[in-house]
Records
---
Amino acid sequence: MTSRTLWTTTALTCTGVLAALSSPVAAQQRTDAAASDADIVVTATRREERTIDIPYNISAVGGDRIDANKTRDQAELLRSIPGVAVVDRGARNAGVLNTVTIRGVNVDSAALGDYAVSAVSPVSTYVNDTPLFAAYLLKDLERVEVLRGPQGTLYGSGALGGTVRYILKKPVLGKFEGRVTAGLSHVDGSGSVGYDGDVILNIPIGDRFAIRMVGSRQHYPGITDYVNVYTLDKNGIPVAPKGVLAPDAEYHSVKDADFVHVWYGRIAARWQPSDAVDFTLTYNHQSDDVGGRRQITRGLNGWGQPYTGYQNGSVQLEPSTRHVDSVALEANVDLGFATLTSSTSWYDHEGDSVSENTGFYAQAGFLSFYYNYPRPMASAVRSYRDRSFIQELRLVSKPGKVFDYVVGAYYQDQTLFGSQDSYLRGFKNWWDAATGMPGVVTSDQDFFYRRNEKFRDRAIFGELTWHVTPSVDLTGGARYFWNRSRNNTQMVVPIYTALSSPTNAYFPTSEDKPLFKGNLSWKFAERGLAYATVSQGYRRGGSNAVPIVGRYAEDPSWQTYKADTLVNYEAGVKGSAGGLTYNLDVFYIDWKDIQLNTLTPNWGFYVVQNGGKASSAGLEAQIEGRIHGLHYALGYTYVDAKLTRNFYSPDPSHVLIGRDGDQLPGSAHHIITGSADYSFDLGDDTSLTLRGDGFYQSSTRNAVSTSPKYNVRLPGFSIWNAGVTLRKGNYALTIYGKNLFNAAGVTGRFTEAYMGTDPAVGYYGNGSKDLISLPRTIGLSADIRF
């Protein structure tokens, strides 16, 4: 099936949706409408509760809905949840950096993502009970929960701005079941068709033991053309067709360079030796192989020609690989008066990439240090690794008439590693030939960087709820943590003999602090709840371990960074009446000692700095309901997130980073979400389901900065999706369209002033780029259940 045929089919389907929704006869034939998200049972409070009964703003998306919508990645999923913003970096950088923003709590540039930063994300992510950001494929999920605001009194890893939980389906005891799914898709701009497939098996062994296995493969051909890539010799050096001293170079084009190949697997074993004891052991693995960036260049190349369509101006390919492994043992023991839960987990998340840095060298004036070598190709080879062991214990009381409680203890031993090896490919050969002084330049490598960090975090936390009356609850929560960290950093500029002596820096830090939470709720109706919450959030500090003596010394003020904290005030009402479910809240956040990932001014060490204050105020509103069989949901969020104090660098130069009143990056003032679905019973165990959804966000800013080199306005955009599923018994066929109107959906930018072309110094490519959303995608998917 061609792209044009698929697009025509989807357009006709959308017309059919509109016709069906206006037909009273069709409205009476609905047999398979989606369940209300408000009635999804979640464990966000560490007890099984409906979202409508939880006294703060929580959203939940069921795994069946995620699958029915053919949700492709984390960015698409989170865009469907009201008030959640995300920088969409594509598959190449999706797993490197957690870019989720809730209630505007973010100051980091959207241009980050090529390397793992030291500061933890303001939003914590969990896979079951393991605090892990892995960007696993969204396969065989029970549900996804999004908790807004600090969560340190219920979750061991804490959270500054919110928590996202990915809850996997457990093995089902006493039942054999399975599913096979296969799909084809075409993305606008691609020269080929992608495919994906999943196999899920649930195998019971007796009545008390079961194994569940998931295997997935994604193979997407890419859309981005790298149109002026250097042709390289067998040593990876740009070819010099007229000799090494001549200025000439040879270029070629690589079509659909950003291919995506992913393998994902999971196996879980569940043993229930008695009705009071339950064990689940889960292993997850994912491997990503990505050929380049899904990011396009808007400007001109060095010959004055514009880049068009899905073209990238890098002079080299930018592949990446990633591997994630995690093992978790979760045990639940019913003690009668309470449930004791133990979560023991380990994970290893590592990756590497090659990045085009030539545009950065050109715009920063660095190429003059290399005597304007005529074929500049600056490669940044980066890697990262995050390994952790986590143990969490919780005791959750059974529902009581007067008091309920949750108490827990948390321990994490985490090792982080980051590296960068930068090369100006071919420079040594050119230098030796041009100067006749072969001993001065040692190699093509001009930067060597290693960062080794160790964190140990211990915390006790809990909440106590007093049932003042049958309809009024008062909850108090507290967390006390103490952590230790150490950082060892090495750096050298090895390219010239005179600069090749290494610098090492080591620095330990420690901190401890209590946090508190208070919540008052009133159940004014059987399905009606009003609440008010005050909660403190915290993000750990650490050390940058930059050298303060020697050739590569920085000012001592860059040596460490401290925790940043915020206070979240929230009041809301939620409930259901007459078939309409509603949720409305207002919030105000006061954030201080803000952590910003940045670079030192002298030698470009990766560091975190504190500075400034910020606030975020707004409202969040969602409704969900049915009209004659049509199931719909609408959400609106207003966020005003801004600096409330000037942000200065910590060194004596006291450089102004951001101004009081500046909008925080990645935070849109307005976000609107909407979805609808409708099912027809066609008889003979056959049904037809129509669905559609849309997302809109207003303009955002790219970075906290006083310079338009980094801080630019990114226009607002909307994305619309639709799909049709025909199901007969255990067989189903789905046709779907993503981003039907092909919006660019830019959520980040590397500007030309930062990484653009400069033919005057021999750079004819262009490293500037826009971080675009997935273009229009048309797909066909089939599945069989048994």
---
Amino acid sequence: MTDYVDRHGLSVAAPLADLIERKVLLGVTPDAFWSGYAAMLRDLMPVNAALLAKREELQSQIDAWHLARKGREIDAEDYRAFLTEIGYLEPEPAPFEISVENVDAEIASIAGPQLVVPVMNARFALNAANARWGSLYDALYGTDAIPGAPEGKGFDAARGAKVIAWARAHLDKVAPLAGGSWANVEAMVPTGETVLITTGGLETGLADPAQFAGTTAGGGIMLRKNGLLIEVVVDRTSPIGKNDPAGISDVRLESAVTAIQDCEDSVAAVDAEDKCVVYDNWLGLMDGTLRDSFEKGGAVMTRRLNPDVIYTDPNGQKVTHPGRAVLLVRNVGHLMTTDAVMIDGKETPEGMLDAAVTVAAAMHDLARNDRKNSRAGSIYVVKPKMHGPEEVAFADRLYGRVEQLLGLPAHTVKLGVMDEERRTSANLAACIKAVKHRCVFINTGFLDRTGDEIHTSMQGGAVIPKTEMQDAVWLDAYEAGNVDTGLACGFAGQAQIGKGMWAKPDMMAEMLEVKIGHPKAGANTAWVPSPTAATLHATHYHQVNVAALQQQFKTREKASKEALLTLPLMHGRNLSDDEVTHELDNACQSILGYVVRWVDQGVGCSKVPDINDVSLMEDRATLRISSQYLANWMLHGVCSGDEIDASLRRMAPKVDAQNADDPAYIPMAPGFDGIAFKAARDLIFKGMAQPSGYTEPLLHAARRAAKARAGQYRDGR
């Protein structure tokens, strides 16, 4: 049972009040904070509630429109006119550009990978912050980026040779020599503004001398490509360097130049206890105190934030370069409420609590003299799951109030607008305009966007199989339109245009082949699931000059709004029984595999084996797709509820077997009566009734029940 304390008419969970008052607040008294926060809640909660009610009203009108035309083909012009009439589609604003100040170069102008991790996990949070730099040799050696795997228990010299060959070939592509190859480098000698390189007995240099950025301790050199640094490491005492003619022991890449510390889809934070962990970890990143100790190889290791990187430029001047990614924090959206702070006996919006506490914690970074997260003096917040310009304008108002509450200059808080809901992507320019003095980030989120696509068009007909959704007409228009709109609104050189997550963390060879499509699409960042993936994805930004592409794309034909609004329906197409069963089993296995960990163990994001035992990164966005997909098929008779129940019961033993080595795992079969199994079933059978098809309300209720059950067991009841 959580104890509460009174703060200006608010009932605040005692541990949260203690954390905020004792550690978080800087330059603001507790009394001023709670007084201002209480006033903010009373002013803004009714506005928040009205926006959520508008979502439901628009959805009801869309459902009614489809039901009135059941069995008829959808006329694109009629559909667009209807959406305009009800205010779902808003007028395009006159041309404008964002006007943002004090934006760090990592966000404004440097193209590179972006890591996304649950801030609730301290080790993951630190790994992400430290993923600014990564060893290319390690990334290649330990993954399938190079075919095969290391043989034996020790170092596999044959595989090591393949790694070195791959890395040197990459250098030949992105930092070529005037003569010869990096494969044959025998010496590197800096000579003032350039570097003399001996290869194959011949003296040469870089084909482009301007790529030489400087020297490092030990005789290594720094190169620069498309704004990213590449360190050719020299260490003749290392096992690799001592056998290399030039002493080259590694190639280190500037990798995740930015990272999102997530309070939302990848965490399972359902109460004040959980939120305190979230906020304390974020605070530790901002004030530099976060630590995580763990055992490895029988020894206790402690992870902390990396120091800056020091090198000497060609003019002999010492350069201090960031050793950590610039961190953004993703707050929750407008929907969910929390019992961590109550008002008049009711829960308050979780997104408002996130806004106040995460921004207050980030003030510790603004006050630091070294190892700052933002050298430009800004705080970066990513705001997800907003539907349309009004909701984005409300976010602008919310963070303005937070700035007033904490005594920060206007627009200190910069916002990332996630383009992941259908009404936002259909009105993206108007959304950006609503926050044009803060907006430094937009990105496409295929997963949540697909979930919202299905829910919005739930009554329109049966949607195409999930495996075909990536070929749907709307998707290309969505991905291209996001870039087109960002460029038209002045994002080039000022803000990030991002693309979504690589969801196969063990398949780096495929990622290297496929994910180069993101920078080629004009996106100056894209999400990766691990530091290793960030290092490998960084090679794409060496090969693609995103800034140059963006200039070209500014004049291309804009993506079609009609295509964007084309519903992904089967239009009477019939599937075989085997096709339906396969789709059901695939979706049910995915739902169960994710939900059972979320509910029973509080794991918000993890590698979940799919039906073919391939590990995929799963979070609430993937769950939203699968649950809405099956709800849609059940509604339109593609499958029955009994068939879904049968699939759930078939897949539960498979998921149990996939988790057999986890001592904390609670099997779902043969009883099929646990909290997690029931929650998974409810997500499908109650899917139509969930607000915008979101999974959070049901998941939070189930996780709270599971925590209560665990508490009873601990107490011996």
---
Amino acid sequence: MDASCLLLLIFTVMTASECAESAERRCINNTPESYNLIEGEAFYFVPYDVENPDEKFTWFRNNSDNEIGNITSDENEDVHHHGGALFLLNPVLTDSGLYTAREDSSSGECYNHYVTFRVFKKSLRFDSKLLYEKIKNSDGNKKVPCPSTIGHFCEKLNGNFSWNKDSEPLEGRHEKDLWIENASKADEGIYTCICTWTHNGMEYTSSASRRLKHLEPSVHRDVEIISPANNEQLAEEGVGIKLSCSVFCGTDVEANCKASWHIDGVSPDQIAGYNETMKPVSQSPAKDTISTAILTIDKVSAQDFNSKFVCRGVGMYTLRNVTLTLKPRESIIPLVVGGVCVLFFCVFAAVLVKCFAIDLALFFRPCFPLSRCDKDGRMFDAYVVYQMQSVDKANEDALCQFVAKVLPSVLEEKCGYRLFIHGRDDIPGEDRLELVEDRMKQSRRLMVILTPDSESESSDQHPISPQNPLIGGFDWQVGLHHVLLQREMSVILIQLGDEGPQGYAHHPAGLQHLILKSAPIRWYEDSRSAAAWNSRFWKRVRYLMPATPAKQRPQSAII
């Protein structure tokens, strides 16, 4: 083969290759489209970038076995095409899939158009997948446009518009764009645009729905810092803490309200040991918008007490800052120790008063003399009443020993009191009745000595007489009158030994009444401190005696 033939062959091959590549490049793939359809509702589709749908088109469909089949142009079929327009007159679930159109333009170029249809059951008409973009604003008059998918081809096919709200027809509304004047909460719902159109003498319907939501008018206000309310907050070093920054921005302004923290001008996200979290914007029933940022400090350090924590609130038009500083919390240990000490002191004082009340009263008695008692003009500190009748020998000896020796030796000799005791202080020849009455009036206390198993005798068995100075006798009757009725003197009850098996039930009613008010002081002859003037028994007796003994008062006050 000569050189000219070889060059001709190479040129022919290259030309054929370039022509094939050029033909392959002429077929351009356009952007795929996708639509959701409702079972039984007709649909008309023309690729969005097709200017002349009467160009030469060939339509294909990929079936479930991924096999490609041609789509007919027979207008009697439910699925057919007319040039670049594809008709799905009665779509069913099995019509879902990928559809491809090959366009051969008059200029010799080739285009591939792709569209995917998904057919849903009628029961899913108001499913979120089938609803078009939601209308959500606070306008007084709201515009609900018919979704462009239905609106465009309805106008092109000279169809008629109608509207439903929540499946209920809206009478007299046949415009493409539905206007709702003075909209309120009651106008919320799903609005469906319905197009009724005719093809080959048959009437078909297509619809598209969208939801309408009414918003209250937004009111932007100057940012107000709700928390922190104070510029200082107590914290403990080494312990974690959470700081809350809450800001109020207005009414229904969720998109333009933000709270945040800054530490010495730096965002917490850039500092180790700090974490900032945002709470969802809260909406009160009044639609007040509050944004909250929570700053978490894992462990408070000494540096944190010198840092400035800035709570920043940003609204639509304003910005406001509040600076917060941490102050070390004082240890509660001194407070606890102090509280325990105070509690211990109070308990100790209560026990001390309870156990030593009489001792304390006797100790401070000289410091607080009762001037009223000093001026009463009485001669004796106590009038002693006792019972000798119906007492056995042992008790009689004990009573005589106590009245004649023990009582005077302690109260008179050691404590300075003056007592009136029958048999010792009687003046011979003086009238007994007048003596008892006069000495009773001259006494400041009535001291009753009780003996074991003392029996109360009635006035019939033991007639009252001046010679019977016994319990239940004349002395007792006069003393009872002064103590219970005239309230001119106090009574001191002393029980020698135990009260006996009968208790105090056998005593006169007046004496029982006094015993119930003040239990008798018990004296035991054989006790180790029976005669000691500072024993517990004698302290109780001295506590009941007058504060200032008669012997210590001036003689002029006695006479």
